[in-house]
Design goal:
Layout (H helix, E strand, L loop, with lengths): L9 H11 L4 E5 L4 E3 H17 L7 E5 L4 H12 L3 E4 L6 H11 L3 E5 L3 H13 L7 E5 L8 E2 H4 L16 E8 L5 E7 H12 L11 E4 L6 H14 L2 E4 L5 H10 L4 E4 L2 H6 L13 E4 L6 H11 L3 E6 L6 E4 L13 E2 L3 E6 L12 E7 L20 E9 L5 E6 L4 E3 L2 E3 L1 H8 L7 E9 L3 E9 L5 H15 L8 E5 L12 H12 L4
Helix pairs in contact: 1-2, 1-3, 2-3, 4-5, 7-8
């Protein structure tokens, strides 16, 4: 079982790959640009040197707000090599959301491209207006600069100077923001140890998820821990080839898989749903394995896909705070429908009841995790870190079957998962409440075959026209929330159901949604 002292940090994995496989292609874009391992190592070194010249020192934050592209990969690895802290952020985040994150982590630089720089500029201004003492400098990729900004090409030094290796694996490597239960974004602090540990734990899986001969599809966003460490980290470990694309398209992604002879396809569940209506005959010839995570898969959808293609689909369970993989059906001794597999080697899992007492065998309980891959708490003070014994409560509820596989049954946290991304109702409710005429609001998730769950807002607005109100809520949320957080449906009701203590009974609202899905409403 890997232990922290045996781990190899990601910058060292890159240097090893460049030394031992210099001419092998490491990463390519769908548009054709690519880098060998030697070139990727050189580019990361040039950017790391440029970060130092720009005044970035160890421990300072560098935000990355751009889609899947070569510059994301080189910058991320450069930040780790410089022992600064990478802060990958969803490029579709609204300026208001982004401004809150910048205010919270105070990055020295923000790297953006032509698609995101306008939002970044607005977010920097909002953060400054809210009290950010030192506005970060914007580094723009391939677009016109404003005064005070710097181009990415000028950030890259002419030559890479030697950078000291990462000796302290407990040094913070990345901040990955996910909304807290209050709706306020929280940065999960992942150390070099946590990132390296999960890469090593996944590498112990047999049969392997990825090998050096594989071509891996990089359609999962690199700002998300799944794409960042499970995919990119795995590619680094095994020296596979990563094919980057910025977006999924049911037909276009199939063409890319064929053109690049992709053999491993990591996805989120909505991909299988999107392919259910596409003719797959001869379209997935190079593929040997599909890996799914970030949200539960529908067993019927998996069964239908395997029957059509003969390609195995393996599912896992993970969290940002676990860097991210906890279980995989590749670790199962007897996989059962609906299960998310057994824990990885080096990851411990237990279930506890409401009193933090181990649940009885077969009974559901809150999932707790322990391992070197766990985060160090939330930025900046390490709040909600693993306890003194190393256990961390996930907020998810599950049970273990007699083969030791985990099955997810509920969530303690009031969370909606849309296409694998976390949406915390409190955040959406706060924005909906700003709309004129809204007296009360409650947000829940509803099952959706395409995206896993849809965001539904139940709104009390006695003096408003329901159609007009729904349009205004959607428009207002569209301006202030990322698209995947915007309610797909607004239900105007006379009153919300409450408990005797005044708490909204969201369980009843979710039951209403299940009845609606069953045609009972």
């Amino acid at each position: 079982m890997p232990v922290a002292s045996d781990l190899v940090d990601l910058p060292s994995l890159l240097a090893d790959a460049a030394r031992e496989s210099p001419e092998k292609l490491a990463v390519v874009e769908a548009g054709g640009r690519g880098l060998t391992w030697a070139e990727l190592d050189q580019e990361a070194g040039r950017v790391a040197t440029g970060l130092g010249a720009a005044g970035v020192v160890a421990g300072q934050r560098v935000a990355l707000v751009c889609p899947n592209r070569l510059e994301f990969v080189t910058t991320y690895l450069a930040v780790l090599r410089a022992q600064a802290v990478a802060v990958p952020i969803n490029p579709r985040t609204t300026p208001r959301e982004l401004g809150r994150i910048l205010l919270g982590c105070a990055p020295r630089l923000v790297v953006a491209d032509g698609d995101t720089v306008t939002s970044v500029r607005e977010a920097v201004e909002l953060a400054a207006d809210a009290g950010l003492e030192r506005a970060p400098r914007v580094v723009a990729i391939g677009t016109t600069l404003r005064p005070g900004e710097r181009s990415y090409d000028h950030l890259r030094a002419d030559r890479a100077r030697p950078v000291p290796p990462v000796h302290d694996l407990e040094r913070l490597a990345a901040l990955l923001y996910t909304s807290g239960a209050t709706g306020v974004p929280r940065g999960a602090m992942l150390t070099h140890r946590a990132l390296a540990a999960n890469v090593a734990q996944v590498a112990e899986v047999d049969p392997p998820m990825v090998s050096g001969d594989d071509v891996v599809l990089g359609v999962l966003p690199l700002f998300h821990v799944y794409g960042l460490n499970a995919v990119l980290g795995g590619v680094l470990r095994h020296r596979a080839k990563l094919v980057l694309t910025d977006q999924f398209h049911p037909e276009g992604t199939l063409d890319l898989i064929d053109d690049e002879a992709v053999s491993v396809v990591p996805i989120a569940p909505p991909v299988l749903a999107a392919w259910s209506g596409v003719d797959l005959e001869g379209r997935l010839g190079p593929v040997r394995l599909l890996l799914s995570g970030s949200a539960p898969l529908d067993p019927a959808t998996v069964e239908a896909f395997v029957a059509r293609t003969g390609i195995p689909v393996h599912e896992g369970y993970g969290l940002t705070e676990a860097a991210p993989v906890v279980t995989s059906t590749l670790c199962s001794t007897a996989s059962r429908p609906g299960g998310v597999g057994a824990p990885l080697e080096g990851v411990e899992l237990r279930l506890v009841d409401d009193d933090d007492v181990p649940a009885e065998p077969g009974d559901p309980g809150e999932i707790q995790v322990r391992g070197d891959n766990l985060f160090s708490g939330y930025w900046p003070d390490g709040d909600d870190a693993p306890d003194v014994d190393g256990w961390w409560s996930t907020g998810d509820v599950g049970y273990l079957d007699d083969a030791g596989d985990l099955h997810l049954v509920d969530r303690v946290k009031d969370l909606v998962i849309v296409s694998g991304f976390n949406v915390y109702p409190a955040e959406v409710e706060g924005v909906v409440a700003e709309v004129e005429g809204v007296r009360a609001v409650a947000v829940v998730g509803a099952e959706d075959a395409r995206i896993g769950e849809a965001v539904v807002a139940y709104v009390v607005a006695p003096d408003a026209d329901p159609v007009d109100l729904a349009a205004r809520v959607t428009e207002h949320c569209g301006r202030h929330l990322a698209r995947f957080k915007v309610p797909t449906r607004v239900e105007v009701v006379e009153a919300l159901p409450h408990t005797v203590t005044g708490k909204v009974q969201k369980g009843r609202l979710r039951r209403w949604e299940r009845r609606r899905a069953d045609g009972a409403l």
